[in-house]
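To: structure subgroup
Subject: Chain for Friday's discussion

All,

I'm putting the inputs and outputs inline so they're searchable in the archive.
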Amino acid sequence: MLKIFKYLQKKDYLLIMFSLVFIVTQVYLDLKLPDYMREITILVQTEGSKMSDVLVQGGYMILCAVGSMIASIIVGFFAAKVAAGFSVRLRGMVFEKTMSFSIEEINGFSTASLITRSTNDITQIQMLIAMGLQAIVKAPILAVWAILKIMGKSWQWTAATGFAVLFLLIMLSILIIVALPKFKIIQSLTDNLNRVTRENLTGIRVVHAYNAKGYQEEKFEEANNALTKTNLFTSRMMAIMMPTMGIIMSGMSLAIYWIGAFLINDAALPNKLSLFSDMVVFMSYAMQVIMAFMMLSFVFIMLPRASVSAKRIAEVLDTEAKIIDGNETKGKNGLSGEVEFRNVSFKYPDAAEYILRNVSFTASKGETVAFIGSTGSGKSTLLNLIPRYYDATEGEVLIDGVNVKNYTQQSLRNKLGYVSQKAVLFSGTVISNVAYGDNGKKSSDGAAVKKAVEISQGKEFVEKMEDQYSAAIAQGGTNISGGQKQRLSIARAVFKQPEIYIFDDSFSALDYKTDRVLRSELKKETRDATTLIVAQRIGTIKEADRIVVLEEGEVVGIGTHRELMRNCEVYQEIAYSQLSKEELEIG
């Protein structure tokens, strides 16, 4: 838990120090109240006392109460400022750290868990600081100071208060021991509930298409019930605390009055008034002691869950990204757009089998190299090694003669225009999504955006939209079709004008006519760049300068369409399953 507080800044510690001063002031003023109460008690019981004397002491009590209130407000303000500032900073650090993760680290945590950690978990820390800074600091000072005040009044009263405190500590210890393991489970169950909810919302169309609403409701109900039951268990355990506190306070009050009755009854007449006033004061101080421990109990309610949350946040912040920046920013010998795989093999972390085995090929500037193979042959995995979503297990991937591991990630990815297998659009407009290709910046170059959209064959549908290029795009592009999303994703890469274009099965949602026209326009636009294409359709890639055929992660053929139709059996099987001999132009 304490480990997370190393991210506090100097200004936070300064505010905490100011809070400490006002907390001490508040405690001092609170503990002065019984002294004035004692004076009033004596004045009321003493013959000849003036009302003005009582009012003066009462005025002092009001001043102390108001001063304590003002000090409490100031402490609350400082605590809230520290808590809010720390949570904002912590959330930014978690987000920044997550952005540095490779796919491997993200999959290790899961997307749902990372969302929970950056929201719910950080909120738990914020609540603990906001409440705990007031209670954790104030409670010990109040308890010790109050105990010092009551010591020497009567050992019987002190013993009664001590028993009450001991009973309270035993109860808190039992609750923490029982509840702490459950709080860890709660955060994991929250992750699971977020995962189920996110999965359902993302796949809502499939859910509706297959009338699987009942099945999804059962999954959600199962996750929801598991979280609810665990929350109820911890809430019930914590609910025991308040009535127990009430019993302790009432029992202590009864014990003090009962002991006081005996002490006053046995005392000499001149000492009875003094003992009575001492009893009133002792009761006030004893209540302050119990209140101090009550404040700590509220912290103990939050502390276990916040402790689990702090550990989960620390796990993210302490995780070392496996994809580390190199130092290179440029290629060798003036090379531009050259991609080379040298004996590359790859397997996913903790996997037993290799996905790629001994893959070697070179793509030079201006060339179009395509990749084809059966499902699971490693085509997309191969492309993912170029932008370093994963690093090759064996061998080297080189861009412009430099191993991709030696580039800074920004320099490497500035060379690439990447269109993923699943078209990804962000909430915004057509312009903002296309201009996203310029390192995620907003662009005012409307002409360049329009040209990129036109090349990607998106002009017709974009200009039919209500606001055209300023038309709103929903998160994930849910308000446009799959083919339209693909065309805008391609436009994003075209807008960037990179050295290397990477199309990971990016034409699958397009009809044959649009596919053919788009490839024709792309060929003109990308003639000075290297183009790498993964595709399932022979028609999409048969004009490529070179085609790499993959089978179970191995290269089983490299050549032009005509060459592969003569000497590569795997390619022939794929080709004949899609097109006739006339269409394949081999007859």
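Points worth raising on Friday:
Residues 326-415+499-561 form a domain with the Rossmann fold fold (CATH 3.40.50.300).
Residues 338 and 364 are 4 Å apart (CA to CA).

D.
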